[in-house]
Fold:
Amino acid sequence: MGCDIHFHSEVKIYGKWEHYGSPLMMRDYDLFAFMADVRNYNDITPISQPKGLPDDISVVTKVAAEIWGADGHSHSFLTGRDEIRRLEEFMKSLDKSRQKVDEVDENGKLINGNWYFYFPEKDLDYLFGGSWSGFYEYPKNYPPQIEDVRFVFWFDN
Structure:
């Protein structure tokens, strides 16, 4: 059975975390391993072990997580300049090193499909017109009401 990610971006505005987006992220076990040590078949050093959902999670993200109930697992979040920059750099390295490879049997039936992972800006949206790590690098370019950003995610089987 495959494992997929449920990914939500949040921004902290006026002291409260608000849901910003939920971009589609394709199945990529190397990425999952890097984010939370999930499906780590290639001995990738993760950013961290799953941390659980944040206590101050936004209402929209909380409802989305609750919908998955016991089928959701390895809940975690990434925040701060270092974690978000490392995630973007890892995603860029995957994009440059991967090619879409589908294996088919003698009848042309797909037996092993490898998801192609797209460049982060396509999947992670932009944060008010700039990159997520740019929030920390160039704070003057963002609305002053935005105090912080983070990614909240979990997986399902």
